[in-house]
From TrEMBL:
Signal peptide: none annotated. Its main location: mitochondrion. The keyword Electron transport applies. It is a single-pass membrane protein. This is NADH dehydrogenase [ubiquinone] 1 subunit C1, mitochondrial. InterPro entries: NDUFC1. Complex I is composed of 45 different subunits. One of its GO terms (cellular component) is mitochondrial inner membrane. It is found in: Mitochondrion inner membrane. Belongs to the complex I NDUFC1 subunit family. It comes from Suricata suricatta.
Length: 74
């Protein structure tokens, strides 16, 4: 009796249709849709400030490196 039950369980696990349905099932992770009727101004402000800071920081860093290299060549 045990081999028959075991064979039944193995055949259920290896059933291609069951594997396909499992892989195409609903996702366990989903993206929450945000309401488009109002903006989140805190996120907008933080994003803009961060991008402006990074642009200024990296341009200044490149300028300082350029000045250091040009002064060491003279």
């Amino acid at each position: 009796m045990a081999p028959r039950v075991l064979l039944h369980l193995v055949s259920k696990l290896l059933d291609p249709a069951r594997l396909l349905n499992y892989s195409l099932g609903p996702s366990k992770f989903y993206i929450q849709l945000l309401p488009h009727d109002r903006s989140d101004w805190l996120k907008v402000g933080l994003t803009l400030r961060t991008s402006i800071f990074l642009w200024i920081y990296f341009v200044a860093l490149d300028l300082f490196i350029y000045l250091r290299v040009s002064n060491s060549l003279e």
